[in-house]
């Protein structure tokens, strides 16, 4: 095949190199700005397409003789795949990190210093070493330092849990190479983090590009914990049989236990947390990326930089810290734009734990106040009766309309929950707590309180003579679940707090307002998780390995053959299959069944290099597939 013509416009580059027909959202504006020497701060949700925002300018500038782009990326473990994806697309890229031996590193440095390299990936701790800076000086003097891309830029901010000390030193890049454009990218949108990035990376003069944070293909559902394991299992079996996803838990212990239990239930699950040794962690991560249908059970230590496109669900078994974390974690689902689920089970204990963690932390009181405020916003989201998407986006300062009917609608839009007036119940609960005080001055936890309210004679009730209380049995009309919901709301709204080792309940000053009937409490009626009637709302859910497009039997046979071929190629190249081609590209090939290279090149995701490397094989595979 002859060399493709050198592309001039960014569009032509996008099509030639990546095989995509057009830019998405703000990509084009960002690319133009950076190609024209501008600095940029890019806020785009996960899956929005941040990589192309620096990769296309890097390629364009390299072709114009401007040399090498330096990509600062926090995760060494993921650089190999990122670089692999670029090389597959015919873009000369490399990484420098501790996984390379001396010879390999020397070769990469030679490629960099010669200016032949288009993109170089390195971790911040390397970029800021004197040795590396000296190399950058040399490139800069020769006009071969094309741009800096700072990925996962929120790592510079102390506000999130991804904070990395090394990122702070990156301001040196601006001080030293003021004329080299810098583009910082993050999917963390809150204003505090944004301001922090601007300040610490000295991006005051950079243009800010804020994309919509809506993820229309993600369906949000938050259910009340009843039996969390059974609920999770039902969710996995009914909605995501054989599909890849992430289950987040708060503690390492719970991660281990949950993964082991899922395996016992016949679901392929792997644990991931910071307490596992590096070798095990990277093995598990690799399997998650490379094999089909693995469920990763993880703490928040897992997920940053994971660009697996077909994560079909993110489930939370414990409440995250705040809405930023929730959104970042759930955002890892559905990067490929196909339907995906964000599912969370939460209950009274979650509220109590999260509050306690803040209270017990050694941080300054002002910081704690901030954390409590953020937790409250998340609790309000969890307790909401209206559209979750609207609330999420509003939190990030974006106005939006409720989920359109049947388009990956959130649980509340799909099945608007009934509510009941729990004001009277709340007053009963609070007066019962005051009775405890008067009667022996003791404090009790939620379990005992509910027993007393419901008139249950337990050993503890007898021991404390609580059958004599005027509040004994005044709440027999409500179920235990309903009482838990009432207490959860009272805690979430700050009328009750929990104390000490036994989480005893203590009214706050505002509890008086509830007792006086000045506060109305509307609660969701605890319902079964709304079942999705599968066929209507979204596209029918695919069974394991099924294509993302509707295919006839012959098309299905072609899709299966293409997947088998891709598995082989991925193994030979030591890359995850999706880096060779996405499922969506294979499905389109199977559907359109192109019979020559020109027709094949029109499929999204087929760039010039991949066409040249794989085109003929693909045509052969298509021809040979029999349904
Ligand atoms: P982010 O880093 O913002 O999470 P990525 O850069 O990984 O997102 O892009 C998400 C997915 O969308 C990738 O699979 C990428 O190939 C695809 N993508 C990005 N931009 C485009 C585009 N303009 N056309 C088609 N696909 C795109
Ligand atoms: Zn909604």
Strand content: 5-15%
Calculate the terminal CA-CA distance, rounded to whole Å.
31 Å
Bound molecules: adenosine-5'-diphosphate, zinc ion
The total count of strands amounts to 17
In short:
With 627 residues, the chain is α/β, with parallel strands linked by helices. The chain has 28 helices and 17 strands.
Name a few traits of the molecule.
627 residues; Rossmann fold; seven-stranded parallel β-sheet; six-stranded parallel β-sheet; globular; binds adenosine-5'-diphosphate; binds zinc ion
What would you note in describing this structure?
The protein is 46% helix and 12% strand. By secondary structure, the chain is of the alpha/beta class. It folds into four domains: 201 residues, 3-Layer(aba) Sandwich (Rossmann fold), CATH 3.40.50; 162 residues, P-loop containing nucleotide triphosphate hydrolases (Rossmann fold, 3-Layer(aba) Sandwich), CATH 3.40.50.300; 105 residues, Winged helix-like DNA-binding domain superfamily/Winged helix DNA-binding domain (Arc Repressor Mutant, subunit A), CATH 1.10.10; 73 residues, DNA polymerase, domain 1 (Orthogonal Bundle). The strands form four sheets. A seven-stranded parallel β-sheet has the order 3-4-2-5-6-1-7, sandwiched between helices. The protein has a six-stranded parallel β-sheet with strand order 8-13-12-9-11-10, with helices on both faces. The structure holds adenosine-5'-diphosphate (ADP) and zinc ion. Zinc ion binds next to helix 17 and helix 18. Adenosine-5'-diphosphate binds next to helix 3.
Task: Please specify the SSE layout and strand pairing.
Layout: H1 10-18, H2 27-35, E1 40-43, H3 50-63, E2 68-72, H4 76-88, E3 93-96, H5 102-114, E4 119-122, H6 124-127, H7 130-141, E5 145-150, H8 165-168, H9 171-176, E6 182-186, H10 191-200, E7 207-210, E8 218-224, H11 228-239, E9 245-248, H12 252-264, E10 269-272, H13 278-290, E11 295-298, E12 313-316, H14 323-330, E13 340-346, H15 348-360, H16 365-383, H17 388-395, H18 411-414, E14 419-421, H19 423-438, H20 446-454, H21 459-463, H22 480-492, E15 496-499, E16 504-507, H23 511-515, E17 522-524, H24 553-573, H25 577-580, H26 583-592, H27 597-601, H28 608-624
Bound molecules: adenosine-5'-diphosphate and zinc ion (ZN).
């Amino acid at each position: 095949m002859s060399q493709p013509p050198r592309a001039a416009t960014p569009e032509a580059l996008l099509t030639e190199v990546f095989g995509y027909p057009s830019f998405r959202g703000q990509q084009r504006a960002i690319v133009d700005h950076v190609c024209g020497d501008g600095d940029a701060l890019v806020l785009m949700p996960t899956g929005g397409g941040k990589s192309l925002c620096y990769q296309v300018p890097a390629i364009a500038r390299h072709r114009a003789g401007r040399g090498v782009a330096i990509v600062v990326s926090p995760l060494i473990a993921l650089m190999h795949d990122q670089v692999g994806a670029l090389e597959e697309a015919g873009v000369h890229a490399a990484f420098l990190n501790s996984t390379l031996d001396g010879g390999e590193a020397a070769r990469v440095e030679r490629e960099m210093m010669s200016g032949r390299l288009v993109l170089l990936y390195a971790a911040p701790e390397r970029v800021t070493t004197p040795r590396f800076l000296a190399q950058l000086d040399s490139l800069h003097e020769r006009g071969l330092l094309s741009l800096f891309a700072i990925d996962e830029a929120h790592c510079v901010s102390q506000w999130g849990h991804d904070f990395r000390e090394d990122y702070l030193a990156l301001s040196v890049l601006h001080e030293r190479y003021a004329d080299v454009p810098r583009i910082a990218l993050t999917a963390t949108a809150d204003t505090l983090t944004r301001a922090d990035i601007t300040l610490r990376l000295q991006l005051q003069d950079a243009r800010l590009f804020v994309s919509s944070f809506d993820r229309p293909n993600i369906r949000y559902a938050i259910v009340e914990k009843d039996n969390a394991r059974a609920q999770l299992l039902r969710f996995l079996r009914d909605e995501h049989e054989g599909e890849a996803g992430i289950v987040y838990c708060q503690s390492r212990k719970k991660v281990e236990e949950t993964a082991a239990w899922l395996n016992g239930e016949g679901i392929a699950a792997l644990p991931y947390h910071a307490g596992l040794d590096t070798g095990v962690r990277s093995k598990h991560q690799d399997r998650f990326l490379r094999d089909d249908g693995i469920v990763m059970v993880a703490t928040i230590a897992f997920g940053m930089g994971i660009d697996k496109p077909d994560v079909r669900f993110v489930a939370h078994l414990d409440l995250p810290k705040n809405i930023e974390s929730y959104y970042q974690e759930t955002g890892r689902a559905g990067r490929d734009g196909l339907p995906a689920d964000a599912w969370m089970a939460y209950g009274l204990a979650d509220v109590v734990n999260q509050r306690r963690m803040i209270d017990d932390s050694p941080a300054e009181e002002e910081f704690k106040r901030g954390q409590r405020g953020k937790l409250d916003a998340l609790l309000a989201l969890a307790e909401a009766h209206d559209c979750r998407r609207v609330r999420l986006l509003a939190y990030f300062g974006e106005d939006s309309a409720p989920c359109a009917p049947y388009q990956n609608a959130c649980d509340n839009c799909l099945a608007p929950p009934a509510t009941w007036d729990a004001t009277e119940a709340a007053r009963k609960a609070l007066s019962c707590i005051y009775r405890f005080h008067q009667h022996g001055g003791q404090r009790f936890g939620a379990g005992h309180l509910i027993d007393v309210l419901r008139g249950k004679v337990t050993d503890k009730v007898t021991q404390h003579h609580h059958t004599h209380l005027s509040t004994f049995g005044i709440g027999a009309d409500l179920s235990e679940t309903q009482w838990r919901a009432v207490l959860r709301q009272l805690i979430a709204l700050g009328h009750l707090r929990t104390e000490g080792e036994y989480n005893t309940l203590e009214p706050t000053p505002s509890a008086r307002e509830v007792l006086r009937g000045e506060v109305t409490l509307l609660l969701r009626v605890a319902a079964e998780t709304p079942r999705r009637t599968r066929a209507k709302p979204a596209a029918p859910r695919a069974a394991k390995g099924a294509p993302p497009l509707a295919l006839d039997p012959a098309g299905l046979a072609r899709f299966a053959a293409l997947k088998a071929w891709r598995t082989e190629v991925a193994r030979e190249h030591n890359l995850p299959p999706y880096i060779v081609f996405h499922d969506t590209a294979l499905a389109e090939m199977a559907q359109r069944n192109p019979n020559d290279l020109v027709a094949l090149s029109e499929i999204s995701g087929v760039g010039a290099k991949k066409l040249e490397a794989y085109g003929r094989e693909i045509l052969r595979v298509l021809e040979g597939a029999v349904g």
